[in-house]
Amino acid sequence: TRMTVGQQRGWDAYWETLGIKSSDQRLNLSEIFGNERPVVFEIGFGMGASLFEMARDNANCNFIGVEVHRPGVGAVIASAGDAALSHLRVMCCDANHVIDKMLAD
Known about the structure:
105 residues, alpha/beta
């Protein structure tokens, strides 16, 4: 899938800090975010505009967005990274795997 220059810049600049890689390990949310705030889990955020706005406007929650469309992931992490949002993370994978393997009940 093609990415725009901005989407690729976001991926290159912020994936290491805002991205969560798919695995078979349970996520430790307090370790990921460094706090115990509630976590909003967004499945299929598209280009990420609404996810970014929710995170920007609500610092009392942490946010994890899952999207299979790599350009959308690049777009939202570019926005989040540029805005220095430390309570937003993204995953580029199938949400079913995340729910089945990576999230606690």
